[in-house]
Amino acid sequence: MATNLANQPTAINADRDAGLVTIDWADGHRSVFDAVSLRLLCPCAYCQGEAGRPGWLDTNPTLTPDQTQLVAMRLIGQYALAPTWGDGHDTGYYTFEQLRTECPCSICAETRPA
Ligand SMILES: [Zn+2]
Ligand SMILES: [Zn+2]
Would you state the pLDDT for residue 4? Predict the structure, then answer.
Protein backbone atom coordinates (compact mmCIF):
# COMPACT_ATOMS: atom_id res chain seq x y z
CA MET A 1 0.00 0.00 0.00
CA ALA A 2 1.41 3.38 -0.93
CA THR A 3 2.08 5.70 1.94
CA ASN A 4 -0.04 8.80 1.87
CA LEU A 5 2.39 11.57 2.82
CA ALA A 6 -0.48 13.81 3.88
CA ASN A 7 -1.34 11.37 6.70
CA GLN A 8 2.25 10.71 7.76
CA PRO A 9 3.59 12.85 10.60
CA THR A 10 7.30 13.63 10.66
CA ALA A 11 7.18 15.47 13.99
CA ILE A 12 4.63 15.70 16.78
CA ASN A 13 5.00 18.25 19.53
CA ALA A 14 2.62 18.43 22.47
CA ASP A 15 3.11 21.66 24.40
CA ARG A 16 1.22 20.93 27.59
CA ASP A 17 1.75 24.38 29.11
CA ALA A 18 0.42 26.17 26.05
CA GLY A 19 -2.21 23.49 25.40
CA LEU A 20 -1.11 23.14 21.78
CA VAL A 21 -0.35 20.08 19.68
CA THR A 22 1.68 20.72 16.56
CA ILE A 23 2.02 18.08 13.85
CA ASP A 24 4.36 18.38 10.90
CA TRP A 25 3.33 16.17 7.98
CA ALA A 26 5.54 14.43 5.44
CA ASP A 27 4.13 16.59 2.64
CA GLY A 28 5.37 19.74 4.39
CA HIS A 29 2.04 20.81 5.91
CA ARG A 30 1.74 21.78 9.57
CA SER A 31 -1.34 21.39 11.77
CA VAL A 32 -1.70 23.17 15.09
CA PHE A 33 -4.52 22.02 17.36
CA ASP A 34 -5.49 23.77 20.56
CA ALA A 35 -6.43 21.48 23.42
CA VAL A 36 -10.10 22.48 23.47
CA SER A 37 -10.59 21.74 19.77
CA LEU A 38 -8.75 18.49 20.17
CA ARG A 39 -10.94 17.40 23.08
CA LEU A 40 -14.05 18.19 21.06
CA LEU A 41 -12.79 15.88 18.32
CA CYS A 42 -12.32 12.96 20.71
CA PRO A 43 -13.35 9.95 18.62
CA CYS A 44 -14.03 7.50 21.46
CA ALA A 45 -17.38 5.81 21.90
CA TYR A 46 -18.09 7.67 25.12
CA CYS A 47 -17.61 11.11 23.56
CA GLN A 48 -19.03 10.50 20.08
CA GLY A 49 -21.54 7.78 20.85
CA GLU A 50 -21.80 4.47 19.05
CA ALA A 51 -24.37 2.31 17.34
CA GLY A 52 -26.65 5.28 16.84
CA ARG A 53 -26.58 6.35 20.47
CA PRO A 54 -25.49 9.94 21.08
CA GLY A 55 -22.25 10.53 22.92
CA TRP A 56 -21.26 12.86 25.68
CA LEU A 57 -20.12 15.56 23.23
CA ASP A 58 -23.52 15.48 21.52
CA THR A 59 -24.97 16.97 24.70
CA ASN A 60 -22.90 20.14 24.12
CA PRO A 61 -21.24 19.87 27.52
CA THR A 62 -19.49 22.80 29.09
CA LEU A 63 -15.90 21.64 29.27
CA THR A 64 -14.14 22.19 32.55
CA PRO A 65 -10.47 23.27 32.62
CA ASP A 66 -9.60 19.72 33.73
CA GLN A 67 -11.30 18.22 30.71
CA THR A 68 -9.28 20.27 28.26
CA GLN A 69 -5.96 20.06 30.07
CA LEU A 70 -3.47 17.98 28.15
CA VAL A 71 -1.44 15.93 30.61
CA ALA A 72 0.16 13.34 28.31
CA MET A 73 0.28 12.13 24.74
CA ARG A 74 0.86 8.55 23.66
CA LEU A 75 1.69 7.29 20.21
CA ILE A 76 -0.44 4.29 19.25
CA GLY A 77 1.55 2.15 16.85
CA GLN A 78 2.26 4.10 13.69
CA TYR A 79 -1.26 5.32 13.15
CA ALA A 80 -2.74 7.28 16.02
CA LEU A 81 -2.26 9.62 18.97
CA ALA A 82 -3.94 9.12 22.34
CA PRO A 83 -3.97 12.17 24.61
CA THR A 84 -4.58 11.89 28.33
CA TRP A 85 -6.73 14.70 29.71
CA GLY A 86 -6.77 16.30 33.14
CA ASP A 87 -9.97 14.45 34.08
CA GLY A 88 -8.28 11.11 33.38
CA HIS A 89 -9.97 10.53 30.03
CA ASP A 90 -7.59 8.69 27.68
CA THR A 91 -9.68 6.40 25.51
CA GLY A 92 -9.72 8.59 22.39
CA TYR A 93 -7.43 7.30 19.66
CA TYR A 94 -7.04 10.05 17.08
CA THR A 95 -5.79 8.49 13.86
CA PHE A 96 -3.35 10.54 11.79
CA GLU A 97 -5.87 10.46 8.99
CA GLN A 98 -8.51 12.02 11.24
CA LEU A 99 -6.09 14.65 12.52
CA ARG A 100 -5.09 15.64 9.02
CA THR A 101 -8.71 15.71 7.89
CA GLU A 102 -9.64 17.94 10.83
CA CYS A 103 -6.63 20.26 10.43
CA PRO A 104 -7.87 23.62 11.72
CA CYS A 105 -5.66 25.85 9.55
CA SER A 106 -7.27 28.33 7.19
CA ILE A 107 -5.95 26.59 4.07
CA CYS A 108 -7.58 23.28 5.02
CA ALA A 109 -10.73 24.98 6.27
CA GLU A 110 -11.20 26.57 2.86
CA THR A 111 -10.80 23.34 0.93
CA ARG A 112 -12.94 21.26 3.29
CA PRO A 113 -16.44 20.53 2.08
CA ALA A 114 -19.02 22.25 4.27
ZN1 LIG B 1 -13.50 10.55 24.43
ZN1 LIG C 1 -4.09 22.53 7.37
Answer: 86
User: What is the dotted CATH code of the domain comprising 5-111?
Assistant: 3.30.2020.30
Ligand 2 center to residue 7 CA distance, Å? 12
pTM: 0.91
Q: How far, in Å, is the centroid of ligand 1 from the Cα of 2?
A: 30
Per-residue pLDDT tens over the stretch 96-108: 999 999 999 999 9
Q: How far is the CA of 93 from the centre of ligand 1 (A)?
A: 8
So where are the chain's domains? 5-111
Ligand nearest to the CA of 43: 1
Q: 33-42 burial string, b = 16+ CB within 10 Å, else e?
A: bebeebbebb
